[in-house]
Every structure is written in structure tokens, then in C-alpha cells.
Amino acid sequence: MISIEGLRKQFVTKKSTIHAVDDLSLSIKEGEIFGVIGYSGAGKSTFVRLLNRLEEPSGGRVVIDQQEITALSTKKLRLARQEIGMIFQHFNLLWSRTVRDNIAFPLEIAGVPKRERDERVTELVGLVGLSGREDAYPSQLSGGQKQRVGIARALANNPKVLLCDEATSALDPDTTNSILDLLVDINQKLGLTIILITHEMHVIRKICNQVAVMEEGKVVEQGDVLDIFLRPKQQVTKKFVEQVMGTNDENENVNQLIESYDQGKIVRLHFIGETTNQALISYLAKHYKLDINILQGKITQTQRGAYGTLFVQLIGEREELDRAVHFVKEDTSVEVEVLRDVN
Ligand SMILES: Nc1ncnc2c1ncn2[C@@H]1O[C@H](COP(=O)(O)OP(=O)(O)OP(=O)(O)O)[C@@H](O)[C@H]1O
């Protein structure tokens, strides 16, 4: 759906030349929610603004739905932008216009007749959950509601792609979650491809399928979200994963666990993304003669199921414990490591 090749943007200032986006190549599939994460200054905003040429590239190619955006004349670009919706951290609403008129604005520009415009606005207001607030002004809305207006306005012309530039960064955690849920809902209902820029890994974890990590204008790591959580390679990626999973001070703790719980087996269960495995603990307790003691762990949810680690103590006859461990190894996708066997 989107192909980006060798994209570059330099800002030349009196003192220096800043390579905000530096030879960046990516391809993004149709219907995907693609996250781009990086710390402040990594070049994320510049990157996303290059995609619809709110910022003119210094070099490289952007192709969206078979249309080479980087080769379009100003006039054709205006039309192409109707296919690319965008939402912003600070909403960018028109303060003197009501919710209804904000959402109608891109339709007016596209020359949609009044009756059709009204119908479309009513539909969009319902889609983003703002029915009843059509006549409110932005100043009368909460942050989450303002972003809902931003989303409805971005969707007005039925775009194929939605660009989100730190769309939840100004919102509190609950509101962030409700806006992220809305984005997933829209992605599923409309089959829209979403590119989402953020500095928060929990946003990526919650809704993205794919993620690219940016540092100094480049993509330094990229892949399926679950794989990136499982095997982060770059230091910067490891730090982002730690935002969600906590720091990796397990090794010290493991020795402590082994010393404190001297009965049975101590095992580490590593959940890597299949939701069917979430009932594993109760399954083991029901089907094998053993007691399970959960000692420590952290499990989080991604779009592809649970990810995380659980340390458990299995108490029972050696043979029964061996059978249970064998079952987990052979018949589930949960990775199991015996840290201390029966004494
Ligand atoms: N118009 C501009 N003129 C000069 N330098 C710029 C301009 N816009 C961005 N930059 C520089 O380009 C680099 C990347 O900025 P960008 O805003 O894209 O990063 P970011 O990852 O989005 O960070 P943040 O989340 O803080 O906005 C920074 O060094 C920034 O100072």
C-alpha cells in the first residue's frame, strides 16, 4: 500500500545541516496499523509530514496506493491528499467552528454538495461517538472529544490512509486508551491503513501490528510487534520494551526465588502470543496431580495475544511434574525453562 524509498529531509540552518530523515526505506501493507517509535528529535514528525508532503522531501520516493506522491504537481497533490487523512497531537481544530462545521470543512473544500455533506457529517459523528455534541465548539470539549473531531474530520473524504502524529500524547491514560480503541475500530470497520507516530511503547503494544524504531533520522529496527518485544536487538529498542515490561533484573531475582522456595520444580514460562495459552495454569492444575504456586511475573497483551514471563513453582511427584513440563514443551507455544529441578 505504501512504499518509501531512500526518503531524506535536511534542514539547513546557519550553523549546521540537520539530517532529520536520512535515507529511510519502508513498506507498509494495506490494512496494517504501522507504528513508528522514537525519542524526541529522532525525526518521526518530519517523516510522517513527508508522506503527504506537508514537508517537502530533499530526496527519495513515496508511493501511496500506486500514486507517486513525491512526483505530483501541487494541483494533483491537493487531490491526492484527500486520500490521506491526518490527525495531530494538538488536534488543529478550527476554534470558531462547531463540531459539525469542523468535520464538514474538508468536504466543503472537496466541493461536496450541502445535503451530502450533512449526511456524511452525521455518519462520521456517530462513527467517532460524538452524537449529541454536533453544535458544541472545540473549547467546550474534552481533549478526547477534540481528538474524536480530529479523527472524524480526517475520515471525511474516505481516505485510504490515516497518519497519526502523536495523536494521544496530549491525553490522559484512560482517554488515550479510548482513542486507541477507536483507531482499531476504524481500522477494522473501514480497512484503513494507519501509520502512527509515538514515543510511547504501550501505544505500539496496544494497537500496532508492525513497528519501526527510529533514531537519528533512520529506521534502526523493524518488525512484527510481538517479535520486537521478544527479541529487541538495538539498545534503543530494548529501552522502549522496558517502558512496558520493566527492567530486566530477573537474574538476581531468580536466585532469590530458588533459595526461598525449596520444594518441587521452579520453572519460567515464556508466553509468546497465543491467546489460547492463557488458561495454561488452570489446565495444568486440572489435568496433572500437582500444585502450582505463581511466584512472579509480568504478562502484557499485544494485538497477537499475550506476551511475558511467569515464574511458577510446581509441587508434586517427580514423574507427574515431568509429564506436565513435557506437555507444555510439546503441545503449547509457551516456552518453558526449568530453573531448578526437584531436589
Ligand atoms: N523546520 C525545521 N527547521 C530546522 N530543523 C528542524 C525543523 N523541523 C525539525 N527539525 C529538526 O529535525 C530533527 C527531527 O525533528 P522531528 O520533530 O521530526 O523529531 P521527532 O522525532 O518528531 O521529535 P518530537 O517528538 O520532539 O517532535 C530535530 O533535530 C529537529 O530539531
Q: Would you list the SSEs in sequence order as H and E?
A: EEEHEEHEHHHEHEHEEHHHEHEEHE
Compounds present?
A: adenosine-5'-triphosphate
Reported for the largest beta sheet, the result is: 6 strands, mixed
Question: What fraction, in percent, of the residue positions are helical?
Answer: 25-40%
- In CATH terms, what is the fold-level topology of the largest domain? Rossmann fold
Distance between the termini: 57 Å
Number of strands: 14
C-alpha Rg, in Å?
A: 24 Å
What is the architecture of the largest domain at the second tier of CATH? 3-Layer(aba) Sandwich
**Can you tell me the overall shape?**
elongated
Fraction of residues in β-strands:
25-35%
Number of helices: 12
Instruction: Show unreliable segments.
Output: none
State the secondary-structure class. alpha/beta
Lateral arrangement of strands in the main beta sheet: 6-7-8-3-9-10
Domain ABC transporter: 2-241
GO molecular function, one term: ATP binding
Protein name: Methionine ABC transporter ATP-binding protein
GO cellular component, one term: plasma membrane
Notes on the structure:
This protein is an alpha/beta fold and 343 residues long. It has 2 domains: 2-242, Rossmann fold, CATH 3.40.50.300; 246-341, Alpha-Beta Plaits. The chain is 37% helix and 30% strand. The chain has 12 helices and 14 strands. The protein has helices at 44-51, 74-80, 99-109, 114-127, 143-155, 173-190, 201-207, 225-230, 235-245, 250-260, 280-287, 318-331; strands at 2-12, 17-28, 33-37, 59-64, 67-68, 84-88, 161-165, 193-198, 210-215, 218-224, 265-272, 291-302, 305-315, 335-340. It has a 6-stranded mixed sheet with strand order 6-7-8-3-9-10, with helices on both faces. The site of adenosine-5'-triphosphate has 13 residues, from strand 2 and helix 1. One of its GO terms (molecular function) is ATP hydrolysis activity. Residues 2-241 form the ABC transporter domain. Keywords: Amino-acid transport, ATP-binding, Cell membrane, Membrane, Nucleotide-binding, Translocase, Transport. Belongs to the ABC transporter superfamily. It comes from Virgibacillus phasianinus.
